[in-house]
Write a structure and sequence with these properties.
Elements lengths: L25 H17 L3 E3 L9 E4 L9 E11 L3 E6 L9 E6 L1 E7 L5 E7 H14 L10 H14 L1
Antiparallel strand pairs: 1-2, 2-3, 3-6, 4-5, 6-7
The structure holds nickel (II) ion.
The site of nickel (II) ion has 5 residues, from helix 2.
Length: about 160
């Protein structure tokens, strides 16, 4: 296992649309293990492959709740969202030290495949739903600051630059 270095705001890979993963690939297993290690080391609850410089549609999630086991998901996509939204504080390992309140659908259905290529369908709300939406955003080059109003975004960015 190896800890990977996390790409920070400003890195181009964070803004790229990541490529589909063709299917189960033993080479991905090592990457997935390393992504978990990197995420745990940084104290995160989710990590997307672009955040470690790999522009592939792969995420790992561990929201640290007994009812949800840690999992990796290939090619995750949002297939359904509820009409209701919820505001919650979010941060990102690629923009450390700052956070912002992001409005997102409070319920989401995500489909993808597990690392063995088995189809997975996840119905999620609360922390897990939010984490999935945040990580899937990463695969499309979207960061949580993009979902803030311009005013709030500037405030967060100012705070971020100040502490660096
Ligand atoms: Ni993030």
């Amino acid at each position: 296992m190896a800890k990977l270095s996390i790409e920070m705001l400003g890195s181009e890979v964070l803004r790229a649309k990541a490529e589909e993963v063709p299917g189960p690939d033993p080479a991905l297993d090592a990457l997935i293990r390393d992504m978990f290690e990197t995420m745990y080391d940084a104290g995160g609850i989710g990590l997307a492959a672009p955040q470690v410089g790999i522009s592939k549609r792969l995420i790992v999630v561990d929201v640290n709740e007994p009812e949800h086991r840690p999992f990796a998901l290939l090619n995750p996509r949002v297939v359904e969202t509820g009409d209701e939204t919820e505001k919650m504080e979010e941060g990102c390992l690629s923009i450390p030290g700052v956070s912002g309140v992001v409005e997102r659908p409070s319920r989401v259905v995500v489909e993808g495949t597990d690392p063995d290529g088995k189809p997975v369908r996840i119905e999620a709300a609360e922390m897990l739903g939010r984490c999935l939406l945040h990580e899937i955003d990463h695969l499309d080059g979207v960061l949580f600051i993009d979902r803030l109003s311009p005013l709030k975004r500037n405030m967060v960015l100012r705070r971020y630059r100040k502490q660096r």
